[in-house]
Design a protein that fits this description.
416 residues, alpha/beta, SHC Adaptor Protein, six-stranded mixed sheet, two-stranded antiparallel sheet, 9 helices, 8 strands, 8% strand
Amino acid sequence: MLQQILADMYIEPELLAELNEEQKQILFFKMREEQIRKWRERETRMEKEEAARVKVKKVSGKMVSWMKGLDDDVWVWVMGEHHDDKPYNQICDEIMAQRAALQAQREAEKLRAKKEAELEKRFSGLYLEPEKVVLSEQEVQQKEQRRAEMELKKLEMEERRKAEEELRRLEQERKQQIYISLKEVQGSKHTREEEDKEWLKTLQKSKAADVRRQSLAKQTIEDHRRRSLKALERGRVAAMTKAFGSTNPNPPPKPKPRNTANNSGAISRKGGMQRSMSASSRDHIIRWFKEEQLPLRAGFQRDQSRIAPWFHGIISREQAEALLAEGKPGFFLVRVSERIFGYVLSYQSGEGTKHLLIDASENCYMLLGDQIRFGSLTELVEYHEVEPLSSSGVEEYLRSACGQIAATADYADLFT
């Protein structure tokens, strides 16, 4: 089941709903490792293809050469990293100020040219025409000419003063507009800074969550390794006890691979049942159990004389929690999942009822994400009666089985 999820890089919502938080963290960690592995394979393949293309490609007259740094790699300059580089906001502000000054200068020059044209048009008729001058009245005309010139100079000075005042007023208004624009830019800059701060906080939280997930996955893997070593050690002790004798007739079971051979021949899955991780109806699950699990004596005691007291049929998560509500920590049951082809171990802990998915898709039984495989559900239950279930910091064991409460067993439809 886990290999199929990693191959497809997809998990169905029904299967995800059956996982607890620890199993979800393990699954996330393994899917992330598979993504990195596929990415590295793709990068290696693309590098090889690029190298092959370079060898085949003909050398032409036009070539591009890249400047290299001290490390013999392509030299790259990133704006803003050098100590002499100006910040992006400062560069934008300077460009806006220069454009505003140029615009104000152009408007002032246009206004000055317009005023000068009006003055020339207004005083063009004040100059005396030569043909109208009379020789007998030369002195009078000279006085009139000087007086007209004085008046013209006064008018020109007055108009020039007015034009300069108008120009100063326009420049002042333009500066005020530039100042307001800069204020707006600074305000938007503060808004961007606040958004950047919020984004940095979100990024820090995301990184912290990734670190927690990696730590939890690493702790879980280490715990699986420790439990596997304990299982192997207990197996060697059991073998020595069997060889030299022991006062304990029923030692704890050790995990072993599934052995599908028996006295009557190998048990094989029927060809009419199509394998799938998820089930669409209760009838499909019943059919799967009868065709594949019942021949393996799933849910029976070790001697296969009767059904185990902890075994339950197709019941929901809520029904399992109701059955375990009155029990102490360690009170447990194994139920057939109503969503997938598999089982769920539900047990009572100090933090409430917990549910662990049991994978039964590879001719063996194991907790999803665990490294230890068992030949039957009974071996899995007996193993965790002496070994802890999870690495959450509190060692939890299976203590007492939750039997049937109603008059009719909830697994009746599986065996009829």
